[in-house]
Every structure is written in structure tokens, then in C-alpha cells.
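Most newcomers find our protein records easier to grasp once they have seen one. Nothing more is needed to start thinking about how sequence determines fold. Here is such a record, shown just as it appears in the course material:
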Amino acid sequence: MSHPPNDERAAAILSRKASGLLAHDDALIELADADCVDALAGVIAERVRLRPDAVVHALEAPSDEMISVMCRAAGLNMNSFSALLRMRRRRNRGTESAPARALSLFSELSRPAAEKLIVPMRPDPGKAAGIGRRKA
């Protein structure tokens, strides 16, 4: 989880992005460089229609595979994904695989293929609305 100074830093970065002063991928790089995990997860989650806690879980996972898929589906470029990997290594995450392997997976996976892989992870809108519940 991020700490208050990171929350302030994240807010400043996201404000610059919202004002058009910072490109999307540059904002992601700055968030990763500042270790703003929650904000980074929120931005990725919004792009791939996942819950932020699912992205945080992938960011904290020992393997790079799931976060690689999420980032490809979110349309990150190689530079922003590389910054995210550096952040994970600083936090001793993703140490089960070499960064080169994660970069290779990321670059070889097409965005449409990645999007198909994350569909099962998306929240079921029917459950959220109470549709499909059986009455007791």
C-alpha cells in the first residue's frame, strides 16, 4: 500500500495528467518511479475494467505473468511497463522470473489477446446488480 507522501505525489502526477500536461505513459512511469502502487493500480484497473485490488494483487505477486498481461491489455508501452517492472524489483516483487522474460512476454502478447485473457477476471455486472440470484 502507498504511504501519505506517495498519495500526495500520486495526486500531483494524476492532476498533471488530467490537465493534459503529462502523457498517459509518462504519468505511469512517474507513478512507478515514485512507488505509487495504489494510484498505478487504479489507472491500470480503469483501463482494463478490473477492480483496483485485483491489479494490486498482480503487482504484489511473485510472478510477472499476470501483471504483464494486465499491462498489455491496458495498452502500456514498453517504457511504462519497464518502469513498472523496476518498481516491482525495488519492492522485491517478481523475483521468480527475470525481467527479460517479462519484457519478452509483454512484447510478444498482442493487446487483443491480453484483453481476452483478462475477461474472466472482470467483475460480473449481474452479481453486482443482484441479477441471477435465486430466492430461498
